[in-house]
Every structure is written in structure tokens, then in C-alpha cells.
């Protein structure tokens, strides 16, 4: 900031606030005054904030008591961040808060909304206190603004990150559920794949299968792709890699349900289909697997 | 936990040291065990290229902070003979033997971002990044 | 670092630890071949359960070991490749072609026994 001001004290002020990220260095006089004021008025400001949250119809998923309890924590963390200039505690609190409220259905705009409301409530309070000394008000706001911006950003980002993490976890869980690795017989695993596979899902399937081979000590795996409509080169490659990786774990892979289109894709990426163990349908694949494992399926009449 | 680790690469022992440091860093950062293995393997190959073709160089491992996620950046640098034809080195379809050449297409598959700068007789720098999902 | 090689009947079992340098691997290759010759082994199991990274050099060395052992009329089985290591290997394009692999020691021994029975 290149503001030239002949007033000594405000040059001092300038120097103090030209640190990184624009937030006030802890220990500066104005900041201490600001923080003291916010602490002194804690009860009233907190109440006003909670009232405005309800007015703006935010956090409707929570009760009045819950809102007040969270408001207290946020307020205290906010003021502390202003005071210390460090944001790790606030970040941790934001994540923690998000983890609690996201399952309750609280959304991003609500969290951002309440932080901005608090910022506004506090700013107005500062206006009210220093309105008779315009110069001082300016300097106080110069101290307050960058820090308040950073706080709002920290909380918003913390919330969004937490939300994204939860969504990813849920997606992961859904994917795991939707692609079971089935142990049908001893040493035989079946992996039926249905639907659309993107590279991420393909990779997850491979990892799941390899872990399954190890856990179940499988010697033969039947991967059924009857239910897969199409595959691009990347995913076809994943399939080939899965076959190769399974072999490294001592398991033979039989691929069943290969459509002509997918067969063509595989050939196009340079894989010799002749080297791959393929059978027309799942039933045929299981029969071949059983033969490989030394099982003989004998019709009941003969077994007597 | 450090944010940056530099490992000089002068011998085959350094290859092991570099990949072990890479794995530790990845685990400390919260990468899954599988991803830590991918990172360690990439480091091993890059370090190996340095030892084989340039005799000495270094590998720098850095923790990087994206807007919504963290990652590890690997920079393998040497002042060796350089790669005359980068396009050729990066070509090589999906099924590579892995024992010939630099194995760069393979390393590329292990990571999320990959860039290489090389000039004949001026050396080579490979920059690779793996993000924590 | 020495790789321990144990004799079990007609077979040898070598257990590889993590953190083998290239020099260690070459030393291992030499020592293993010498043992095969000395003991006139029918088969070798190389257990890589503890290997946390299989790179191109390790992969090539294992292939060479298998080739050299085959020249002595014996079989090699690599056992214990970890799922994550297998995944990384195929990404890198290392498939250990023409080298037998099995899940673990038990499977490896079963494989060797079966092989030696069919050639007997």
C-alpha cells in the first residue's frame, strides 16, 4: 500500500500493517484496542449476531440454543484470530464445526452468510464507537478489514474443504458397495462389473480386486463385463493392467462378456487378445474357472 | 514434518534413500499406502535414471498446497548428457517393457502431473506431482 | 545386505528384505545361482513379501535370475508381491513376463512340487 501521509502516527500504522497477507501484526496498539472493545461488548454483539442470523433465516436446521452455542464459539475464535494474527486455530475450528453441521444439512451459503453477518455486526460496532474521530475510525478499520477478510475466507474454505471431503467419502463408499468382489468358491473370485466405468472407478476396482485376491487367496478370478456398454482406451488399459497385476499375485484371470466393441478397443490399444483368457459368458467363465481349479461338476445321477 | 527434502543422488544407495524418504513424506502427509508406493516407485525410477545416465544429480521432494488439496512434488535434476529427443522418450504406448530406455511413460502413469525439460549436454529436470485426493 | 537363502529339500527359499540396493541385488543374484549349482536344486522360491518397491532394476534382476536358473534345469517362482506393489509395477509396465508367480510361500511350494512332478 503506497499511501503517503505526513502524519507520523499513521505512517507508523502503515508500517505495522504492511506485513504479509495484509493482516495486522499482533501487538500493535490499535489492534489491542479493537480486540479489547470486541471482548468488552461480547455479550451484546453476540446476541445481536444471533438475532440477525435468525432474521436472515440462516441455520434453519439448528435450534436457537444450538445457534447461540455455536455463535459463542465462532465469536471467540474470531476475536482470537484477530488478536493473534494466526489462523490455525480458526481453521481447525472451522473444520470441526463443518464436520458437525454438514450432516445436519447446513449449506455453504449459510456458513459464509453467518461469518459475513458477524463481520458486519462487529464493523458497525466499531463505527458506533469511533464515529466522532474519523481519522481514528479509518485506522481502526484498516486494522480490522484485512483480518476480517482473511477470517471469512478461512472459515469458508474450511467448510468447503470439509464438505468436499465428506462427499468424496460418500462416493467412495457407494462405489465400494456397487462393485462387490464375490467369493463364490474357495480360491475363486468373481468381479461383475456393471454400468459406466471411469478411470477412477477402474482404479478402485483394481485395488479392491488385488486386495481380495490376497485376502481370499484366490487362484482364479472371473471378471464379467457383460454389463459394461462401452470402454474407452484408458479403461480398457486398466482392465489389461488388472489382469497383469492379478497374475503377479499368482491368480489367473478369465474375462467374460466381452462385447465385439470392447474387444476391438482392446486390440486397438495394442494388446494381443489371444493372450487374454476370455470366455463368452459368465457361466462359461465359471465353468472354466472350476476346471482350472480342479473342480469337477458331476451330475447327481452319476454321483451315487 | 518438513516441507522440503533434498536428496543428493550419486550412487545406487541413494536411490533407496530417496525413495524411502519419499514414502515417509507421503505417509506423513496422509497419502494412502498404495499412493505412497506409487510415489516411492516414481522416485526410484527417476533417481535410477540420474545414476545411469548422469552419474550424479539430486531429487527434491516438496509438499505443495493447492487450493483444496495437498500434494507432493518431485523434482529430479541432473547436469548429464540430456535427452536428445524428448518426444521419442515420452512415446511408447501402453505396453512398455520397462527395462529399456528411461521408462518415462511409465513414471508418467504413476503421477498426476509430469513435465520434463532437457537439453543436450545441459542436463535434465523432471518435475512430477502427485495429489492427495 | 545379505539375502538369506534356505534349503528345503530339493528347493531353495530366498527371502528378500526391503531396501536392497542395486549392488545388493546383483550380489544376491550371484549368490543364489551359486547355491542352485552347489545344492543341485530343482526349484527356487524368491519371497518378496517385504519388498515395498519393485522398480525396473529389481524386475529385470528377477527375470535374469529366473533365466539363469532355468539354464540349470530348475524352476523359479516369485512369491509375495504385495497388491500395491503389483499395481505400481503394471503402471510402470513391469510384468515379469515368463516368470512364474504365486501368492505366497505355500502356493509357491505347491507350484514347484507340481512342476517337478510333471517333469519327473
Please explain how this structure is put together.
The complex is a heterotrimer of chains A (304), B (133) and C (120). Chain A folds into 2 domains: 11-173, Histidine kinase N-terminal domain (Globin-like), CATH 1.10.490; 182-296, Transcription Regulator spoIIAA (2-Layer Sandwich). Chain A is of the alpha/beta class. Chain A is 63% helix and 9% strand. In chain A, strand 4 (252-256), helix 10 (260-268) and strand 5 form a beta-alpha-beta unit. In chain A, helix 3 crosses helix 6, helix 4 (64-84) runs antiparallel to helix 5 and helix 9 crosses helix 10 (260-268). Chain B has 133 residues and is α+β, with helices and mostly antiparallel strands. Chain B has one domain (4-131): Heat Shock Protein 90. Chain B is built from 4 helices and 5 strands, in the order E-H-H-E-E-H-H-E-E. A 5-stranded antiparallel sheet of chain B has the order 1-2-3-5-4, covered by helices on one side. In chain B, a hairpin with a 3-residue loop joins strand 4 (113-119) and strand 5 (123-131). In chain B, helix 2 (33-54) packs antiparallel against helix 4. Mean pLDDT of chain B is 88; it is low at 93-99. Chain C contains 4 helices and 5 strands; from the N terminus they run ββαβαβαβα. In chain C, strands 1-2-3-4-5 form a 5-stranded mixed sheet, sandwiched between helices. The mean pLDDT of chain C is 93. Chain C has one domain: STAS domain (Transcription Regulator spoIIAA, 2-Layer Sandwich). Chains in contact: A-B, A-C, B-C. The A-B interface holds A 157, 160-161, 164, 168, 207, 237, 240, 269-271 and B 34, 67-68, 93-95, 133.
